[in-house]
């Protein structure tokens, strides 16, 4: 019934049952790889969603609250400033002084009613006569004063003290009183006090004027006595309940505080919806898992296919191409084993050769492999050469072809190089052909060109114009003018594309091109792409027209028509023999200034000094001339007129970050919340001042093109670089214009009736350096800055690598960056005192020595 299992015959093999996979190594490897990638990714998303996002939101709301508080406090200050000026003016009028000679209460009341008409919104206005001892007779009727607060205010004012407004609660409403002394200039026998009282609902209206939806603004009056402190809310507007985000600002000599609490709506507006980041995180994780699954499936299929290919082609000759290089040793060994010649059989010719028997052990299992260790395998591979495919040839090294286009002239935001060697006619024609082709692709039929006063500029402009016309562009040549006039032309003429031939402040032998394409700065990647286009020779062809047009008169008329000089100023102009000398004196003269020209004859040899305003040694002559002439200010321009340097009446150089403080104060006061942009070389006090004025400070990268891009992106009303580039978005077009900036400064000075130095008196006074240049090669400068950022030890400072390496300390800051216009590193330092300045400079010197082996003493 049952069949007995037959033992295997010696020399025959059983079915292979003892060969099996011990474990799926690939499966384990895949799971480990998944864990390695997923766990950090999950931690990153958790950090971004739960920690960083919350912290960023909190910082944004806090900063927003501080900005609102500053804006509201500015409004309150302006309200009381106007009221105080009106009270002082009223106290000095003959009508107020006449009360000193009147003893009739009815007559005094009539005068009070008559003067009250000049104080709309006031609850009351009282004229209180003082006796010969300087006090009022308060025993009988208290002179109509409401409480001891007004009595105290009267007494202090009568003594000549500069009193501040004080609030008090009277008949269930809050009132605020101000007082001013009325003195008879002809005699000291008698005087009086003019006291005005307003209802604090007016202060609530001032707070509400900025908008009540953003949150709740409250004006608090503080009362301190010993350790006891009380805060009374004397005016308020809006609503808000998130007290931990409140911001406060001191007012009225610290007696008042303005508190702003953001509303739920404002907080919600700056609170990102977490569902969207969560969905993005889920999508990213899902995509990663799917990608890994696809990789696993694909690799298994590929591996199976490769093994099948190895097995089926093992006995064949010819090339064996594998996609998995790791299988090559196995494939070679299998092919050698199967293709090795076998010994002749003793059977008769033609008899079939029995297949080789697999070696077996006594128990019938397979014997050990042919090779017992890897050294035997290596020896076999070395001694047997049975491969049928040739060894792969090494790929040749790529050959770099010199296309004759020097890469270093294509800089970060313009093109600059040696005029004779690197910007010869052939190179300029290639650049013009590429720019003309690009302009046509962007719908710009006309291109405006101009040049400065350098000796090589007319030649370069001529070659450029011919190349542009050969691409089919109409060329509008506006002649030799400052760069800002070309920028103005792209707004005033029919074309929004312009090319300025200028070397700016570079050495005499250099020249370059500044480009505006379709109303936008042409910089960064666009300039590098331009070089590639030149190399490829991808140019359009056509026949454009060459036109000439004079636009200087329109430029001057536009500026003069928008400005008013209240008082004529005496201005010394140093153009450094640059092209600004052909325009700036006429502009300031027509504006109403008395102009003293200095080095204003255009001469490309620059015989008096180099037109680089960032080098303060070039301003020595101007400083001396301003003092000698008794001028109000001195102004200097660089070679193409887009940068400004200023000297005060005392012969002191006023650096650009100080000028930006003046301009910011002027512009932001009229435009609360306006953006103000400045570069990393400017004083950190700009951040505090712009915020105090009610604006938004933005620190940005150095470079006129970068600044213009940021101006367009943010809609900022003011921007500036420490090097002297100043950008006005208010009443102007947002490009850098040294001449226009000089006019705006003259307008502010003339309106203040003080002079430049008093305008600067309220700004922080620090110890700082001018821009320091350290010559290095173009090839090394960026590597040095990168090494400093990665390896430098600037503890305990905070490093900012937005542009170069800027390190902020508690008492100052230092900066080292690579110049984008020449072979140099530029540095600047600022501190609260000279000891801090030296400490910061020494640390930068030490770190530069440590990471780049550069010995220097800043």
From TrEMBL:
InterPro entries: A-D-PHexomutase_a/b/a-I, A-D-PHexomutase_a/b/a-I/II/III, A-D-PHexomutase_a/b/a-II, A-D-PHexomutase_a/b/a-III, A-D-PHexomutase_C, A-D-PHexomutase_C_sf, A-D-PHexomutase_CS, Alpha-D-phosphohexomutase_SF. Residues 338-363 are annotated as: Disordered. Its EC number is 5.4.2.8. CDD domains: PMM_PGM. Residues 409-539, 554-651, 657-763 form the Alpha-D-phosphohexomutase alpha/beta/alpha domain. Pathway: Nucleotide-sugar biosynthesis; GDP-alpha-D-mannose biosynthesis; alpha-D-mannose 1-phosphate from D-fructose 6-phosphate: step 2/2. It comes from the Bacteria. It catalyses: alpha-D-mannose 1-phosphate = D-mannose 6-phosphate. Residues 771-846 form the Alpha-D-phosphohexomutase C-terminal domain. Its cofactor is Mg(2+). The chain crosses the membrane at residues 30-50, 275-295. Keywords: Isomerase, Magnesium, Membrane, Metal-binding, Phosphoprotein, Transmembrane, Transmembrane helix. The keyword Phosphoprotein applies. Residues 339-350 have a biased composition (Polar residues). Pfam families: PGM_PMM_I, PGM_PMM_II, PGM_PMM_III, PGM_PMM_IV. Belongs to the phosphohexose mutase family. This is phosphomannomutase.
């Amino acid at each position: 019934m049952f069949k007995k299992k037959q033992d295997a015959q010696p020399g025959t093999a059983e079915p292979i049952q003892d060969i099996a996979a011990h474990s799926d190594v690939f499966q384990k490897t895949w799971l480990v790889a998944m864990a390695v990638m997923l766990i950090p990714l999950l931690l990153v998303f958790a950090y971004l969603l739960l920690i960083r996002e919350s912290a960023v939101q909190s910082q944004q709301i806090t900063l927003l609250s501080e900005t609102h508080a500053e804006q509201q406090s500015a409004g309150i200050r302006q309200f009381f400033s106007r009221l105080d000026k009106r009270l002082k003016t009223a106290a000095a009028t003959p009508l107020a002084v006449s009360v000193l000679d009147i003893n009739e209460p009815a007559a005094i009341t009539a005068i009070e009613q008559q003067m009250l008409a000049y104080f709309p919104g006031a609850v009351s206005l009282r004229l209180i006569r003082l006796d010969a001892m300087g006090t009022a007779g308060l025993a009988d009727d208290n002179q109509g004063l409401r409480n001891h607060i007004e009595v105290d205010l009267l007494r202090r004012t009568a003594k000549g003290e500069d009193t501040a407004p004080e609030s008090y609660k009277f008949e269930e409403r809050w009132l605020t009183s101000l007082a001013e002394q009325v003195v008879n200039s002809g005699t000291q026998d008698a005087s009086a006090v003019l006291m005005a009282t307003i209802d604090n609902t007016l202060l609530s209206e001032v707070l509400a004027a900025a908008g009540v939806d953003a949150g709740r603004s409250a004006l608090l009056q503080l009362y301190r006595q010993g350790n006891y402190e009380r805060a009374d809310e004397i005016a308020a507007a809006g609503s808000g309940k998130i007290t931990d985000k409140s911001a406060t600002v001191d007012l009225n000599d610290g007696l008042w505080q303005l508190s702003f609490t953001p509303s739920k709506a404002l907080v919600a507006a700056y609170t990102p919806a977490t569902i969207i980041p969560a969905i993005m995180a889920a999508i990213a994780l899902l995509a990663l898992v799917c990608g890994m699954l696809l990789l696993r499936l694909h690799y298994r299929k590929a591996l199976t296919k490769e093994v099948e290919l190895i097995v089926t082609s093992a006995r064949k000759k010819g090339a064996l191409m594998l996609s998995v290089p790791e299988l090559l040793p196995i494939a070679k060994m299998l092919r050698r084993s199967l293709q090795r010649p076998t010994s002749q059989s003793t059977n008769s010719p033609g008899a079939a050769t029995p297949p080789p028997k697999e070696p077996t052990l006594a128990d019938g299992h397979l014997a050990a492999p042919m090779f017992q260790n890897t050294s035997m395998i290596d020896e076999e591979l070395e001694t047997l050469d049975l491969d049928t495919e040739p060894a792969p040839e090494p790929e040749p090294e790529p050959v770099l072809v010199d296309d004759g286009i020097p890469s270093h002239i294509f800089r970060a935001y313009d093109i600059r190089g040696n005029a004779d060697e690197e910007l010869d006619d052939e190179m300029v024609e290639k650049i013009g052909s590429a720019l003309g082709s690009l302009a046509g692709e962007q719908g710009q039929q006309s291109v405006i060109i101009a040049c400065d006063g350098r000796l090589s500029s007319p030649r370069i402009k001529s070659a450029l114009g011919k190349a542009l016309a050969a691409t089919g562009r109409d060329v509008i040549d506006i002649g030799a003018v400052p760069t800002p006039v070309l920028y103005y032309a792209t707004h005033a003429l029919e074309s929004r594309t312009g090319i300025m031939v200028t070397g700016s402040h570079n050495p005499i032998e250099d020249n370059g091109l500044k480009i505006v394409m379709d109303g936008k700065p042409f910089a960064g990647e666009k300039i590098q792409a331009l070089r590639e286009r030149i190399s490829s020779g991808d140019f359009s062809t056509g026949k454009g027209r060459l036109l000439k047009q004079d636009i200087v008169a329109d430029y001057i008329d536009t500026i003069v028509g928008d400005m008013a000089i209240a008082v004529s100023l005496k201005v010394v102009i140093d153009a450094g023999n640059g092209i600004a000398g052909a325009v700036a004196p006429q502009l300031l003269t027509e504006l109403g200034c008395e102009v003293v020209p200095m080095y204003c004859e255009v001469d490309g040899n620059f015989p008096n000094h180099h037109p680089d305003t960032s080098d303060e040694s070039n301003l020595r002559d101007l400083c001396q001339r301003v003092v000698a002439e008794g001028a109000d200010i001195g102004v200097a321009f660089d070679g193409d007129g887009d940068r400004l340097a200023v000297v005060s009446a005392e012969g002191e150089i006023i650096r650009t970050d100080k000028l930006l403080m003046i301009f910011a104060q002027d512009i932001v006061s009229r435009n609360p919340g306006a953006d103000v942009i400045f570069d990393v070389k400017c004083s950190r006090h700009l951040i505090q001042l712009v915020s105090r004025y009610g604006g938004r400070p933005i620190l940005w990268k150095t470079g006129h093109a970068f600044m213009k891009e940021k101006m367009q992106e943010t809609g900022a009303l003011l921007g500036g670089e420490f090097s002297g580039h100043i950008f006005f978005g208010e009443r102007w077009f947002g490009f850098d214009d040294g001449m226009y900036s000089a006019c705006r400064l003259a307008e502010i000075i003339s309106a203040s009736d003080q002079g430049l130095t008093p305008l600067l008196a309220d700004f922080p006074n620090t110890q700082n350096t001018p821009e320091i240049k350290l010559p290095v090669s173009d090839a090394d400068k960026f590597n040095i800055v990168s090494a400093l950022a990665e390896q430098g030890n600037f503890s305990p400072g905070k490093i900012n690598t937005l542009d170069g390496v800027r390190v902020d300390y508690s008492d100052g800051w230092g900066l080292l960056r690579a110049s984008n216009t020449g072979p140099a590193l530029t540095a600047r330092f600022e501190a609260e005192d000279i000891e801090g300045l030296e400490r910061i400079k020494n640390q930068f010197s030490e770190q530069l020595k440590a990471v780049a082996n550069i010995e220097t003493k800043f």
